[in-house]
């Protein structure tokens, strides 16, 4: 094994909503992992990459302080930490690379079901319970409203019942928790999903090459998610129309069909899901022998 400073460290949530997806994604990038006995590190067996398993709130700090080179964490946490640092006059030492299409949720304002909300001005002089004081303050400032954020580290949804707040500002996905507490979602402050963040500190050439490789593989895994390989036969005179119907495809490959001068074979990678309606439209335009195949790996 390489000395530890030569190995890439990726900060991943230890136990929570992002854990399984994050590890699964890295395994689909070809990384073979074994967990340490104390469950705090996953060692990469076939690449010099290790995962540090930590609380999600610590991930931006670990990447910012250069203890980890990359991290996988919710945009809600990234944005809150960035705003907290900015409020203290400290720069953000990490950069956001790309979104990972899991961990979808939103940071929303909610009020007791009988409350009237006519837009942000309804928050004027109200108390709003939240763990996301930075994001809430930004929303209030952008809307030029004075209100009082009340910090809650968890169980924010019970604050109105306790008489501690008039509104709450919290993460919502299905809305079930709000409904169970007699609350209704009234506004959305941030749409969130898991993102990859990277340290801004310069890495040596070797480490940088490895970080680039893992980011390229992650990008490939994401592209493959919805991509399909489509094959069909097209009458030559309908080729232009059929090409236009192929969803999100780059230049298709056109092949001659043996013993048939009227038709050609068209092969294309479509970077969007291919729905039945699309196939029916292609058929109506003259296409035949339609085949849609999943794509397993992709390297741009
Ligand atoms: O221990 P650690 O600090 O690492 O974990 P945590 O408890 O802070 O985080 P965790 O595992 O709950 O969430 C990690 C990340 O998942 C969040 O930062 C979000 O980016 C994302 N995420 C996606 C969610 C939800 N969906 C979600 N539903 N985070 C929290 N929730 C909460 C929500 O606030 C509500 O209390 O789950 C509850 C159920 O939500 P509903 O709307 O489906 O009822
Ligand atoms: Zn957390």
């Amino acid at each position: 094994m390489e000395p530890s400073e030569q190995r890439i460290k990726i900060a991943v949530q230890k136990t929570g909503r992002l854990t399984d997806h994050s590890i699964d994604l890295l395994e689909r990038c070809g990384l073979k992992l074994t967990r340490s006995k104390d469950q705090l590190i996953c060692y990469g067996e076939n690449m010099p990459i290790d995962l540090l398993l930590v609380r999600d709130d610590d991930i931006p700090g670990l990447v910012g302080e250069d203890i980890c080179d990359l991290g996988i964490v919710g945009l809600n946490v990234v944005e809150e930490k960035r705003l907290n640092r900015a409020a203290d006059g400290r720069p953000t030492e990490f950069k956001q690379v790309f979104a990972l299409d899991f961990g979808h949720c939103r940071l929303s304002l909610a009020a007791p079901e009988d409350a009237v909300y006519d837009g942000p001005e309804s928050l004027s002089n109200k108390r709003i319970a939240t763990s996301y004081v930075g994001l809430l303050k930004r929303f209030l400032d952008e809307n030029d409203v004075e209100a009082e954020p009340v910090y809650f580290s968890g169980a924010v949804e019970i604050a109105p019942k306790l008489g501690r707040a008039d509104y709450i500002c919290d993460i919502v996905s299905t809305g079930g928790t709000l409904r169970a507490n007699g609350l209704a979602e009234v506004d959305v402050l941030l749409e969130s999903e898991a993102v990859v963040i990277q340290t801004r500190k310069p890495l040596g050439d070797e480490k940088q090459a490895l970080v680039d490789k893992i980011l390229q593989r992650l990008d490939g895994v994401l592209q493959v998610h919805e991509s399909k390989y489509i094959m069909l036969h097209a009458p030559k005179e309908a080729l232009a129309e059929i090409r236009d119907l192929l969803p999100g495809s780059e230049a298709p490959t056109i092949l001659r069909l043996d013993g048939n001068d009227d038709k050609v074979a068209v092969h294309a990678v479509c970077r969007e899901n291919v729905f039945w309606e699309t196939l029916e439209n292609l058929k109506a335009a003259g296409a035949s022998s339609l085949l849609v195949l999943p794509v397993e790996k992709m390297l741009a």
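The pocket of zinc ion (ligand 2) is lined by residues 55-57 (CB under 6 Å). The chain has three domains: 3-102+194-223, 105-192, 228-294.
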